[in-house]
Amino acid sequence: MSNLVLMTLLLMVMALAYQLGLTRSKRVAVTTNGTGFRMHSRPTYHGMLVAFWAVVPAAAIFAVWSLAQPGIINALVLAQLPPEFQPTTDTEQRILLRRLANLASGFGLTEEAADYELAAAAYLNQLHGIGRTLMTALMAAVAATALVLAWRRIEPHLRARNQMESIIRWLLIICSTVAILTTVGIVLSMLGEAFRFFTFVNPLDFFFGTTWNPRFSTVGTDGQTGFGMLPLLWGTLMIALIALAVAIPVGLMAAIYMAEYAPSKVRSTAKPIIEVLAGIPTIVYGFFALITVGPFLNQLGASFGLEIRTTSALTAGVVMGIMIIPFISSLSDDIITQVPKAMRDGSLGLGATKSETIRKVVLPAALPGIVGAILLAASRAIGETMIVVLAAGNSPVLTANPFEAVSTMTVTIVNQLTGDLDFASPQSLVAFALGLTLFVITLLLNVVALVIVRKYREQYE
Amino acid sequence: MNTMQVSFGEKKDNAAQAEHAVKMSARDVKVFYGDNEALHGINMDILENEVIAFIGPSGCGKSTFLRCLNRMNDTIDTARVTGLVTLDGKDIYDRSLDVVQLRAQVGMVFQKPNPFPKSIFENIAYGPRLHGLVDNKRDLDEVVESSLRRAGLWDEVKDRLEAPGTGLSGGQQQRLCIARAIAVSPEVILMDEPCSALDPIATSIIEELIDELKGSYTIAIVTHNMQQAARVSDKTAFFHLGNLVELNDTREIFTNPQDSRTEDYITGRFG
C-alpha cells in the first residue's frame, strides 16, 4: 500500500469519525433533552474532537515509523551478511547499501550481482514488506481504538469546545515553531560552513582584505589569498545607497501625495499600481537595466562628457531604486495616514497651509515610521541579487566611481556556487561566510527598523 | 417654568453688550455632507467680546456651524458650505480671502487636546513662526511666555518648556492648545467642546480661563454641558436637527425659553 493510499484512507477515516461523533453527540443531546439537560458543546465540536483523535495518533505513528524504519532495516540487512562480505568502512557500507537498494528495486544496476547480494536484496524487500504491513496494522489498530474511546467519551458534560480550542492553540504554536526553527536551522548551517571556511582563511584577511581574487587552488595547500571582502561590501553599499537616493525622494513624495493630496479615488487606484512595481520579478528588472537603462545612462553620460559604463553601479542602483519605491511609498503612506487628523486640524486651525502642516507636523510625527520603512527597503536592496548580477558589471574592485562596474556580495555568492566545483574548497565555502555577513547586516537593519517602528506605534496611545 | 438650578456668571452687563459691534455674522448658512443637508440656513450675529455658547443634542449641527466660522469644514472632502459668513463685514468664503489668514484671525480649540508631538515651547512657537509675528528669539520667548501666562499654564510649565507637550495632563494639554491659539493673536476663538475630555477640576480651570479671555477675544463655544453654557456664556444658541431654534441672552434661554423644544431640552426631556 503506497503512502498516498494510506493518507487518503486516513482522510476517509477522519470524515467517518467526524460523522460518527456528530451523530452520537446529537443522539446524546436528544436523550437528555427531556431532563432539561443541555450539551456543553455543539455537535460539530464533538465531531471534530473524534476526528482529531482518530487521525492524529495514527498519523504520528506513520511519521515516527517512516523515520525509524530505514535505519532498523539497514542494520538488520547488514547483520545477516556473511562475515567475509561485511563492509569495513563507512563509505563501503554506504556504497553497499545503495547497491542493495538498487538491486531490491531493480533499477540502476551497473554490474552483475553476486549471490550474497541477491539474498540480501531479497531480505531487504521482505523486511520492507513486513515493516509496511506492521505499520499499517498498528495505525489501523490505534486509529480504531482512539476513535472508539473518543466516541464513547461523548456525553453532555464533555467540554469538546474547550478541548478543540487548546488543540487549535497547539496547532498554531507548532506552525510558528516551524518558521522559527527554519530560521535557526539556516543560521546554524551557515555558521557551520562559514566556520569551516575560516579554517582555511584568516577572518581578519576576509573581513578587512581589500583584494577579491580567489584563485582556484587545491584543498589543503597553504596560502589561500585574495579573499578580502571589502570590495564586495563596498559594491553592495554603493549600489544600495544609489538605490535609496533614487527611491527615498520619489517614494516619499509619492506617499505624501497619496496620503495628503490625492482624492480617495486616485489613491485607491494609484497605490495598487505603484505596488505592482514590487511584484515585477527581479530578473525582469535585470534585463530592463541591461538593455534599456544602461545604454540610456551611457548616452546621457556621453552627452555630458562623462564616461558611464553600460553595466555599472549606477545602472544597477537606479533600477534597484525603482524596484524599492513601493516599499517606501506604500509603508510611508500607511504611516502618514495613521497620524491623527487632530494633529492636522490643530495645525490648520492655527492658519498653517497644507504643505506647512505636512512639513512641520505630519512628517516629524511620522518620521520614526518613515525611517523604519526606509531601513526595510534598504535591507531589501542589500539582499537583492538578480539586478546586480545582470547590471552591475561583476568586477570586484574597490572603486569610488559609481560609473564603473562593481560587484556585490550576492553576485559573488552566485559566482562562487555555480559551475563545477568542490564543495569542500574555500572557493565555494566563502559563499557561506559572505551569506552570513549579508544576513547579519540585513538582520541588524531589520532589527533597527522594527525597534523604530514599534517606538512610533506607542507615540499616540 | 423649569426648576433647574443654574448659577449665572457675570451677566449683569447685558445692556452694555447690546452696544457691542457685530464681529461675525452668518446669513442663510447651509452645510451639505455629500447630498445630505446638515445645516438648514442659519442666521446669527456674534458680537465682539462676548461669549456665545452653542448647545443642542448630538448631531444637531452645532459643531458643524462652529467649523464654518473659520472654514475648517474645507478640510472635509465631502463638505460644502453655502450662504454668507462675514468677519468684520467681510465675506470669509470670498475667493479673494486667504483662508490661512482667516484661521490666524479666528483660532480654534478642539474637543480632544491635540498638542503637537513637540516640546511645550515649540507648540506655542509654531503659530507665531508660521505667520512671521516675531523677528528674533527674544520676541518669541516673550510671546510664548505671555501666551502661557494668559492660558494660566506658565507657572506649571515654566521650568520644563523643553518637555514634550504630549506629556502634560489632559487639562494642561487643553490649556496648552488654548495658549497655542492665543499666540497668533486671534480676534475670535472657537472652542469645540473643549472640556468634554477633561475631569471636573480641569473643566472649572478652563471655564475660569474663558471668563478672563472674553475681555480680549470673542469666543464661541460648543458644549454638551448646559450648566457650563449657563456658567460661561453671555448668549446661548440652541440648535436642533440642523436648525437654529433659539438665540438669546443666556439668562433668558435658561429661565424663560420661548420655544417649547428649547424648554424640553434644557429641562432634560430629551438630548
UniProtKB/TrEMBL annotation, chain A:
It holds the Pfam family DUF3708. Residues 233-449 form the ABC transmembrane type-1 domain. One of its GO terms (biological process) is phosphate ion transport. GO terms for cellular component: plasma membrane. CDD domains: TM_PBP2. SUPFAM superfamilies: MetI-like. GO terms for molecular function: phosphate transmembrane transporter activity. The chain crosses the membrane at residues 6-23, 44-68, 133-151, 171-191, 232-256, 276-296, 308-328, 361-382, 429-453. Gene3D superfamilies: MetI-like. It is a multi-pass membrane protein. Belongs to the binding-protein-dependent transport system permease family. CysTW subfamily. This is Phosphate transport system permease protein. It comes from Marinospirillum alkaliphilum DSM 21637.
UniProtKB/TrEMBL annotation, chain B:
The keyword Signal does not apply. It is a peripheral membrane protein. CDD domains: ABC_PstB_phosphate_transporter. Its main location: membrane. It is found in: Cell inner membrane. Keywords: ATP-binding, Cell membrane, Membrane, Nucleotide-binding, Phosphate transport, Translocase, Transport. GO terms for molecular function: ATP binding; ATP hydrolysis activity; phosphate transmembrane transporter activity. SMART domains: AAA (SM00382). It comes from the Bacteria. Residues 24-266 form the ABC transporter domain. One of its GO terms (biological process) is phosphate ion transmembrane transport. The keyword Transferase does not apply. GO terms for cellular component: plasma membrane. Part of the ABC transporter complex PstSACB involved in phosphate import. Responsible for energy coupling to the transport system. This is Phosphate transport system ATP-binding protein. It comes from Marinospirillum alkaliphilum DSM 21637.
